[in-house]
Amino acid sequence: MSGDALDTLVASLRREGVRITTARRLVLDALVRGTPHPTAEELLSSVRAMAPDVHASTVYRNLDELERLGVVVHTHLGHGPATYHLAADAHGHLVCEACGRALEAPPDLFGQLARGVKRRLGFTLHPYHFAVLGLCAGCAAQTPART
Amino acid sequence: MSGDALDTLVASLRREGVRITTARRLVLDALVRGTPHPTAEELLSSVRAMAPDVHASTVYRNLDELERLGVVVHTHLGHGPATYHLAADAHGHLVCEACGRALEAPPDLFGQLARGVKRRLGFTLHPYHFAVLGLCAGCAAQTPART
DNA sequence: CGCCTATTGCGAGCTGGTCGCAACAGCAGC
DNA sequence: GCTGCTGTTGCGACCAGCTCGCAATAGGCG
Ligand SMILES: [Zn+2]
Ligand SMILES: [Zn+2]
Ligand SMILES: [Zn+2]
Ligand SMILES: [Zn+2]
């Protein structure tokens, strides 16, 4: 079942005429099966576990290309490196400034905001590229109040 | 009147025991009087207009220090360099992915979102660090529809 | 199998920012 | 106004995260 997700993805890319190389397949595999918010470097090391000679720039180029194809999206959870998702899994992020943990925003959370912005400013929101920062419940309790 | 804003800021910093150097005063001056979303490099060149020998790292260090003191905040409007505001002027940003223009979010815009997040997840939002991307009215009209 | 061309490995290069250090300059105290 | 303490500065080296140019390689179609 979960092996299928990769195969399906690969098949549909091939149908679009996208060439499937080992590196590209392994990047997709790492995205399908790995931990939730991998950075390019984490993806690189997953890829290298199977194909040790893959070069970092290959991973960057594949991520760019897959993003251009609409298969992958990247997100910034803070100041560090970008993190990647399968586009099908895209979601907003709430990141705690104190403990650094990233919560996935419930899918409807930005809906109201998006509607308000649209109505008032005519602006169409794509709220997934940057995380929204703040303090999670646990850290807020331990932190001296802040404006 | 507008010269006062700087003087007031400087006076209050001095009262807190902060040492006021030429570079620091010029950075503040550029923030008070310059264009709305300056990058560190833009601030550097404003500063150099008055004091040509100020070094880039001095501007970075002053911005860090002023941020630590709560006088300045930085924001990421996109992939480029960070941009700076006086903390007193802080506001959310809506940035158009097509034309790159940054709109200031009306101050109450994030209020609902913040209340929703707080109630449902106990998460306290600080919605100013990262911009929220999207398409402005003008660009949305010209762009082939997108999910 | 062979060709075409997209993709890769590789290293150099780039942007935006940080750091360690010795010289320097605020400003409090006299 | 001068002195001294200490925070700040100029400077260069360095760093992370990413991008590019190029020649060699390898998908995939016929
Ligand atoms: Zn991004
Ligand atoms: Zn996520
Ligand atoms: Zn930031
Ligand atoms: Zn702004």
Helix count of chain A equals: 6
Bound molecules: zinc ion
Biggest β-sheet description of chain A? 3 strands, mixed
Low-confidence stretches of chain A: none
Please name the defining characteristics of this protein.
binds zinc ion; 6 helices; 147 residues; DNA-binding; Arc Repressor Mutant, subunit A; alpha+beta; two-stranded antiparallel sheet; Dna Ligase, domain 1; three-stranded mixed beta sheet; homodimer
Describe this structure in words.
- 2 copies of one chain form a homodimer.
- Chain A has helices at 2-15, 22-33, 40-50, 56-68, 109-121, 137-142, and strands at residues 72-75, 83-86, 93-96, 102-104, 124-126, 132-135.
- By secondary structure, chain A is α+β, with helices and mostly antiparallel strands.
- Chain A has 2 domains: 1-77, Winged helix-like DNA-binding domain superfamily/Winged helix DNA-binding domain (Arc Repressor Mutant, subunit A, Orthogonal Bundle); 91-147, 2-Layer Sandwich (Dna Ligase, domain 1).
- In chain A, strands 4-3-6 form a 3-stranded mixed β-sheet. Chain A has a two-stranded antiparallel ribbon with strand order 1-2.
- One zinc ion binds next to loops of chain A.
- One zinc ion binds at residues 74, 76, 82, 129 of chain B.
- The structure holds a DNA duplex (30 and 30 nucleotides).
Blueprint of the fold:
The structure is a homodimer of 147-residue chains.
Chain A: H1 2-15, H2 22-33, H3 40-50, H4 56-68, E1 72-75, E2 83-86, E3 93-96, E4 102-104, H5 109-121, E5 124-126, E6 132-135, H6 137-142
Parallel strand pairs in A: 3-6
Antiparallel strand pairs in A: 1-2, 3-4
The site of one zinc ion (ZN) has 6 residues of chain B, from loops.
Chain A binds a DNA duplex (30 and 30 nucleotides) through helix 2 and helix 4.
